[in-house]
Batch of 2 targets.
Target 1
Amino acid sequence: MRDPLLDIRPGDRWLIAVAHPDDETFGCGSVIALASVCGAEVTVVCATRGEAGEPVPGSADGADLGAVREDELRRAAERLGVRRVELLGYRDSGFDGDLPAGSLCAAPLDEVAGALGGLIAEIRPQVVLTLDGSDGHRDHLRVGAAARRALGDSAGPLLAEHCLPVSLLRRWLDEMRAVRPDTVYHSLDPAALGRDDADITDVLDTARVLDRREAAIAEHRSQVSPFDGLSPDLRRVFLTTDHLARVALTGRTR
């Protein structure tokens, strides 16, 4: 039986479910670009418009940040070869603190899962890809949980999570302490961040689409890229090698 995650063919359908504009690019942009180059029809569904993001000074002065970031999402998606972008309309929950009214994490999980499930039923993808949430952001965890809930009880697509292996994330944190000492991630317990390297099921070489990934990153002008300031070697590792973990779902034999 063909493995749709590794043997991507023209006409395949992929659904990428993320929480915020830029997750599709900063997170799994190379995988999206690779699927598109191989002929897959890629849909990105984004749960929020990223209203709680911290804009680069001068990038969104006097503008609606959510509108700015939605526009960046659509331009970056085009760079990556995405066929369709859908927004679910929840508000950004923010990294921590009280949950804003209408935010993603304030919504019942079944409601979010139902919204994703409707798109899955319409698109009928072979692969659904999310971020695994191992960076500690509660919205990333919420989208992953909703995808598992939406897919858990019936035969359907392969579900995979894009991961940040512990070994790689610790290298990133070490370099960020020098170049960006005020990042929120330094306040978290390093032991709680990243995915155990033993959980990784697939490592993809995505070097062939590096130019597309870089072009998409450049479209997210309102946000600081997590790769800014990294040494050239570590930046290349992040942008040309992607780590995935297949999710075993309830009732599935896959």
Target 2
Amino acid sequence: MTDLLKRLASAPGVYRGRGDGLESGPFVARIKVTSVVRGNAITLDYEAVSDSKGLQHVEHTILTASEAGRLELHVTCLELPGVTRFVEHEPGVFNAYEGPMPAKIIMTMPQEGVLTYGWWWSRDDAEPREQSRAEVRRTG
């Protein structure tokens, strides 16, 4: 089990904050972190809302370790068909295992009670760029 999974398992709750990005623009973020199966997995329920776009992102993600011990994100959201698996290639950097476009998610806990969650992608063959990033703090 890696540090990120352990840290999130020991800090469940509701995280709230703000975000911004090239694609998203400014928004308010809410991420509910739930430890499941005795901390062997974490669920993240993520919503982003803005005054101009209303509810612009809804996501349910499971963070867990694979059989080989690498962290994986299993993501379902309005923007992707079905469930997309992202595999951790370096600490906190999850690349899409399969999907319609090059994408990655970068998730960090820079300090206790603070979570960052960024979506990176490209609509062409270029390297993914950060399109949306939330920084949230645990509120309960």
